[in-house]
Amino acid sequence: MAIVLYPGSFDPVSNGHVDVATRAASLFDRLIIGVFDSPQKRLLFSTEERVEMVKKAVAHLPNVQVEAYTTLTIQLARELGARIIIRGLRMGSDFEWEFDMALMNKKLAPEIDTLCFMADLEYQFLSSSLLKETAQGGGCLDELVPKHVAVALREKFSSGASL
Ligand code: ADP
Predict the structure, then answer these.
(1) Per-residue pLDDT for 58 more than 90?
(2) Which of 10, 26, 79, 92 has the maximal Cβ count within 10 Å?
(3) % of the chain with per-residue pLDDT over 70
(4) Where are the alpha helices (DSSP H) in the chain?
(5) CA of 35 to the centre of ligand 1 (A)
(6) Given this model, what pLDDT does residue 92 score?
(7) What pLDDT score was predicted for residue 159?
(8) Average pLDDT over residues 118-143
């Protein structure tokens, strides 16, 4: 059985993430989405909130599971028995960082490979940080995030959160 791990911050999950998860889930037996507890980024949502939003976003995919993690990604992959780490690649912005990370992970865990999915044309420009800025300014997020994520973003900013 092929188990693969899709790790990320998902602050919050977007339709670009869901697209990658959907494509990966159709190719492998089981996909585990790992929500990293403490990325080197300023987070808007708590780990619990991020996990809940991802769970709801992929609830229609029966072979997908979501969990939070605090360890190195390769450590989680090993614990899960996943030999493949899934990542998404947007044009221009992601390549160097993803390449560095894949090489570091390969150095640390030679048995694990990173597999990148090209972001769908429709979601190339879509990043969680741009989403947050747009939501803070009151912009419309239809077709960019699942409905419950748009609601959560609106609630966050109307309750006084700032970036
Ligand atoms: P991280 O902090 O690990 O980069 P993110 O939640 O920002 O976590 O992204 C997780 C993965 O999803 C990364 O590989 C990122 O490149 C990819 N990704 C982000 N946005 C999109 C998108 N719009 N389309 C496809 N992949 C994406």
Answers:
(1) yes
(2) 10
(3) 100
(4) 15-27, 47-57, 73-80, 95-108, 128-136, 147-158
(5) 11
(6) 79
(7) 92
(8) 95
d(CA 64, CA 22): 9
User: Catalytic residues, which ones?
Assistant: 17, 41, 90, 128
Helix/strand number for the chain, H first, E second: 6, 5
44 lines ligand 1 (CB under 6 A): no
CA of residue 88 to ligand 1 center, whole Å? 5
Q: Is 69 in the pocket of ligand 1 (CB under 6 A)?
A: no
The rounded distance, in Å, linking the Cα atoms of 109 and 71 is: 14
Note the pTM of the prediction, 2 decimals: 0.97
| CA angle centred on 30, ends 26 and 151, rounded to 5° | 75
